[in-house]
Amino acid sequence: MNRRSFLRAAVGSLSLAVGAGIPAVGRAGSAKSLDAASKKVLERLKGPMASITIPYNKDFSIDHGSLRGWVDWMCENKVPIILLTYGDSELYNLTERELEAVTRTVAEQNRGRALFLGGTPHGWSRQLVDFVNRVEDSGVDAISVHHYGKNEDEIHRALAQVSEGTRLPLLAYEHGFSRDLVRRIAKIPRLVGMKCHAELYNYYDFIRDTKDDDFAVVSAGQMKHFLFGYLIGSPAYLCALTPFAPQVGVRFYEAMKKGSIEEARQMIFDYEEPLLEVTIPLEYPQCYKSALYLRGIYKTQLVRPPKKSNTPDDLSPLRQFLQERGLLKKS
């Protein structure tokens, strides 16, 4: 069964479930207590998340002016969450000083309008603690922790050590976690959730396993996952379209909230599936940076070497996708 057949077969049962009134997934039995800042993050961690792709000048220095303009655009279009994440934001290519500067630029321009989730460099526990504490005064709301860890005990230990040494709310960056590890980390104080990269069934299991732990399992990037995950308690999703077409991500979430499953499903067919076909040859995150370039938000579409930047000649399929869906003009 292909993706379209699966979604078509499932949408009828989903509509019935929404119509019957699925109860909200509760957190009443949580074994951990959250401080006020963590509770506030959890309350706001709902809806489409726009990942920050780093704009560069022609010399590969960071273009903070374009970054500020993008933050304003997201906020003007009522995007509820913006975030720095390891892949889209090319954190592996930023120095700690650059990452701190980006965090401060985004927080200063955002001014609390969207929930801002920052990110750490990929490092050892003390390095991560020092970084989180250094940017605490920036205005960032929470931080995703990108840690070393060759086994699950080390991963749990790293997250617990960062929690013990810092005061900001934290999120985990899931990559191949077991259900047991997710249940364990959900108990860590101020760890309010995780960005989940698992495919459908593990994603659903993680949601169910942590439903009473004040712990948000957010989808790492596809509407088709959130179409089902939302119904069992996933509050937010990383949307590939939102950073360059914010109205699409917001409209999809509004359709889910009001139970318009058919509308939401059609948006997957109209926007997400054709975008994924374009993304593969243009590569990731280059495709989404190129979309921001075509829309006039970014001055260049550069990524730092050794990754290969797209050239103007590469962009015909992406330009056609944007034109056919009325997305070339800034809205």
Short description:
This protein has a domain at 35-258: Alpha-Beta Barrel (TIM Barrel).
Could you walk me through the main structural features you see in this protein, from its secondary elements to its overall organization?
- There is one protein chain.
- With 331 residues, this protein is an alpha/beta fold.
- The protein has a domain at 35-258: TIM Barrel (Alpha-Beta Barrel), CATH 3.20.20.70.
- The protein contains 13 helices and 8 strands.
- It has helices spanning 3-20, 36-44, 64-76, 96-110, 125-135, 152-165, 179-185, 200-209, 223-229, 246-257, 261-282, 286-294, 316-324, and strands at residues 47-51, 81-83, 115-123, 142-147, 170-173, 191-196, 216-219, 236-238.
- Strands 7-6-5-4-3-2-1-8 form an 8-stranded parallel β-sheet, sandwiched between helices.
- Helix 7 (179-185) links the parallel strand 5 (170-173) and strand 6.
- Helix 1 runs antiparallel to helix 11 (261-282), helix 3 (64-76) runs parallel beside helix 4 (96-110) and helix 10 runs antiparallel to helix 11.
- It is globular, with a radius of gyration of 19 Å.
- The protein starts with a helix and ends in a 7-residue tail after the last helix.
- 44% of the residues are buried.
- Mean pLDDT is 91; it is low at 16-29.
